[in-house]
Design a protein that fits this description.
By secondary structure, the protein is of the alpha+beta class. The chain folds into 2 domains: about 10-90; about 90-133, no CATH class. Helices cover about 40% and strands about 15% of the residues. The chain is built from 2 helices and 5 strands. The strands form 2 sheets. A 3-stranded antiparallel beta sheet has the order 1-2-3, with no helix packed on it. The protein has a two-stranded antiparallel ribbon with strand order 4-5. The longest helix is centred in the middle third of the chain and has 46 residues, at about 40-85.
Length: about 130
């Protein structure tokens, strides 16, 4: 592995998964039971720490992605309002798909609206749910 450059990106806070009770430290297992820390294998503790570290970065990145998406929609909405007001023009199709490109064609912003279909247990067949979508 190559050394990684430290990131200024901070993970979301994740609890360490340890519970202190009556002066003892425990970890909660998948069934909700408390297991004394000295009975949890070192490799399981290391795996737990690794998963929690990754989850912290994942949650923080998810938050950034949500904020980015909101900014993109606001910026496109502002652009569309100006386009309509100043030029009487619109972009995108009837279903909401939009593509904006830089003048030189090097950058493209594309908003795609996907149809959503439900194939859950309440459907007798995929066709039945598709027809009701």
């Amino acid at each position: 592995m190559t050394p990684q450059t430290p990131s200024k990106f901070e993970p979301a806070p994740i609890p360490d998964g340890r519970v202190n009770a009556n002066g003892n430290t425990y970890m909660t297992d998948t069934k909700g039971g408390l297991v004394p820390i000295d009975l949890v294998k070192a490799q399981d503790q290391l795996q737990d720490e690794t998963v929690r570290k990754i989850a912290g970065y994942s949650l923080a990145l998810s938050g950034q992605t949500a904020r980015f998406k909101e900014h993109v929609y606001n910026d496109i909405g502002d652009f569309e309002a100006i386009l309509e007001q100043e030029y009487g023009s619109t972009i995108g199709g009837a279903r909401g798909n939009k593509t904006l490109m830089s003048f030189d064609g090097l950058f493209k912003v594309q908003v795609s609206v996907a149809d959503q279909f439900d194939f859950g247990p309440s459907c007798r067949s995929p066709r039945a749910c598709w027809m009701n979508a």
